[in-house]
Write a structure and sequence with these properties.
Layout (H helix, E strand, L loop, with lengths): L15 H7 L4 E5 L6 H7 L11 E6 L2 H5 L4 H9 L5 E3 L4 E3 L5 E6 L16 E4 L7 H9 L10 E6 L13 H4 L18 E6 L2 E5 L2 H7 L6 E7 L6 H6 L2 H7 L3 H7 L25 E3 L16 E9 L15 E9 L2 E10 L3 H15 L4 E5 L3 H14 L5 E4 L5 H13 L3 E4 L4 H10 L7 H19 L6
Parallel strand pairs: 1-7, 1-10, 2-5, 2-6, 6-7, 11-17, 12-15, 14-17, 15-16
Antiparallel strand pairs: 3-4, 4-5, 8-9, 8-10, 12-13, 13-14
Helix pairs in contact: 2-4, 13-15
Length: 473
């Protein structure tokens, strides 16, 4: 009796993914939102050519870590390419197919890494998350997009939205700008429309057909381009397998949610950026008369039972004729009870170092020894010295310096997401209006010291609960 064989079909999902893989354009950018099946589409693209032993393809991520991450390109390729009798060579991050064709995953972490490809001829070049790459990296690789294999050279890319002033990926608007409306969302009627371009004096010149460009720029050979929109709602396989992914997108801070989810049908917003009222909005904060009690020795802080922290962003600069509006020394007192964060007090002063030291001691005494004290440590040797001095000043308290991770907006995202969800409340006090005005204006306001202190307090409370292994949700 003949053995039964199982046939496995590898194909695109109906909709934008199928349109992407069927496009004849020389360059296609696919995406415009998270979860649309972008990376998987890139993995499928080379398969049409792998019976050609002269064919090779390179798929780039900005760093090798991104290639190797769990669920990243290499992991996902194992699920597909191994079914086609391809041989993985992990040390090279490369697959070799029975014909001799190869598909390689590579990184271009540094600007100079583009020169590693000097002299290469690559029929298919793909970029996963194109907005992570610089303009110079992309156009250098465009010059490497050549072929002696019989396969017409072409390029494919995926990306999520980023604004046009982004210092790394903002240049992508040179390609996608025509497809994006004034409100920052993709124009549905333009998705998939093919246009033509040439590069003249390092600038793109566009037309609706190649003949127009050939007439205007003799000697230039136009290339075709299109942008194809997709969103998580186009990826039925993902939504069926992991319904929580959509919930996670909806729980993001406002700016990230607009970029990665947007309004669904039109994908993410290409123009939104951190601005006043969009990172924090004063309307998100309820003002209450009191907060639940602090934890006691018998209360487990791991359950969020009233652990309290005062976080300081230190400036130690007073007003003067020379410095009419220096940075503030800001200290925010925050308590976590369950999944709610109560801001009990916020201090912001412009004082000389001696007065700041007195303020730290007096505030610690008023807060009590049950309140943890954290403060931001500046970089360099002077930062280490200042941290030692501050810790010595507050001897007898649970005091620790914290090295900031990421930029100010990045550090504020967790607090902003919880605030928008209604989980951050302010205890009524004379400081409320000043504090809310500062947060609402971030990151465009004149000062962000209280934002840094509030973010620091929140991140410390979250970190402690995570370390004790009882984070919910």
């Amino acid at each position: 009796m003949a053995e039964k064989t199982t046939q496995i079909q590898i194909r695109a999902q109906a909709g934008p993914q199928e349109v992407f893989l069927a496009s004849p354009a020389d360059l296609v950018i696919y995406g415009g939102a998270a979860g649309g099946g972008k990376s998987f589409a890139l993995l499928l693209e080379p398969l049409r050519h792998v019976r050609n032993g002269q064919f090779n393809a390179v798929i780039f991520r900005r760093t090798s870590v991104q290639v190797r991450n769990p669920g990243g390109l290499w992991d996902e390729s194992m699920k597909v390419y191994s079914l086609l009798s391809a041989t993985p060579r992990e040390y090279l991050l490369e697959w070799q197919f029975p014909s001799g064709a190869t598909v390689k995953f590579a990184h271009m972490e540094h600007e100079k890494n583009r020169l590693d490809w000097q002299g290469s001829q690559i029929p298919l070049i793909a970029f996963d998350e194109l907005t992570h790459f610089t303009r110079d990296q992309f156009f250098y690789m465009l010059s490497r997009n050549r072929s002696m294999s019989g396969v017409r050279p072409y390029m494919r890319a995926t990306c999520n939205p980023t604004p046009d002033d982004d210092p790394v990926g903002g240049w992508v608007h040179e390609f996608v700008g025509w497809y994006i409306g004034e409100d920052g969302y993709a124009l549905l009627e333009r998705s998939g429309v093919v246009r033509w371009f040439v590069v003249v004096n390092d600038e793109l010149r566009w037309a609706d057909d190649p003949a127009t460009l050939r007439a205007q720029y003799p000697g230039s050979e136009p290339k075709s381009f299109t942008f194809i929109l997709s969103s998580v709602f186009d990826n039925k396989i993902l939504l069926d397998a992991d319904p929580g992914y959509l919930v996670n997108l909806m729980a993001l801070p406002l700016v990230d949610r607009e970029r990665l989810l947007g309004d669904g049908q039109r994908g993410g917003n290409w123009k939104i950026k951190p601005s006043a009222g969009k990172v924090f909005n004063r309307g998100w904060f309820e003002i209450v008369e009191t907060a639940p009690a602090a934890s006691t020795a018998s209360t487990s802080s791991a359950t969020g039972g009233g652990r309290t922290v005062r976080f300081w962003d230190l400036a130690a600069t007073e007003k003067s004729v020379a410095k009419a509006d220096p940075d503030y020394t800001a200290g925010v007192l925050m308590r976590r009870v369950g999944d709610v964060y109560y801001i009990l007090d916020a201090i912001a002063v412009q004082e000389a170092p001696g007065r700041v030291d007195a303020l730290l001691r007096n505030t610690a005494s008023q807060d009590g020894t049950q309140v943890a004290i954290r403060f931001e440590r500046e970089g360099g040797a002077s930062g280490v010295r200042d941290a030692r001095n501050t810790a010595a000043l507050l001897a007898g308290y649970d005091v620790r310096a914290v090295q900031p991770q990421g930029d100010k907006v990045m550090r504020a995202k967790g607090l902003a997401a919880q605030a928008e969800a209604g989980n951050v409340k302010l205890v009524s006090g004379a400081w409320n209006d000043r504090f809310l005005r500062t947060l609402h204006a971030f990151p465009e306001g004149a000062h962000d010291d209280e934002v840094d202190a509030a973010s620091g307090a929140f991140n410390d409370l979250v970190k402690v609960v995570r370390e004790q292994g009882t984070v919910r949700g």
